[in-house]
Model the fold of this input.
Amino acid sequence: MEPQFDFEPAARSLVAIVDAVTEDQLTHPTPCAGSTVRDLLAHVVGLTEAFRQAATKESVGRSTPPPAGNDSPLPDDWRTRIAAQLETLTSAWRVPEAWDGDTEAGGVELPAAVMAIVALDEITVHAWDLAVATGQRPTVAPADLAILHEFLCETDPAGTPGLFGPIVEVPADAPALDRLLGLTGRDPAWRPAAPA
Done:
């Protein structure tokens, strides 16, 4: 199967956001309940490698669920590591064979083409999470928004345990990114509370 989309725009956006995170922002809250910027960056370190392995199929039969809670350590080289892993993930999904058959990530087996969309969703939505938590604005390619809207349009309003919270109602005429965020259980108006 030929690649259905390219990860470069989403990867480039996430790298720019990660590059702009400052050390004093690591303890800031994020839209992910109970997760700080540090926690979310540690999650991104893990997911970028997991989805690269899903593309190469090296994870098949040996992937495991991500650690529960927010106990994953953040490596000292998180900034350069995330950038490097996003580059290799992008390259891995450019290989036509990556899109064939089934694959695994995080202990979940899916058709490879569906796994690619899950990876795109994770990269795109967590880029927004990190951006809004650190006072930035993410850039999302219109083509990526269209892919993710189609993927998520049948989301259960009650959410998907372990993945998405209950859908947040967003006006039909809201920007496409806001409508996508609502489907993932996020409030597009979320902002960190002002320091006391």
About this structure: The chain has a mean pLDDT of 93. The chain has six helices and two strands. The longest helix spans residues 112-133.
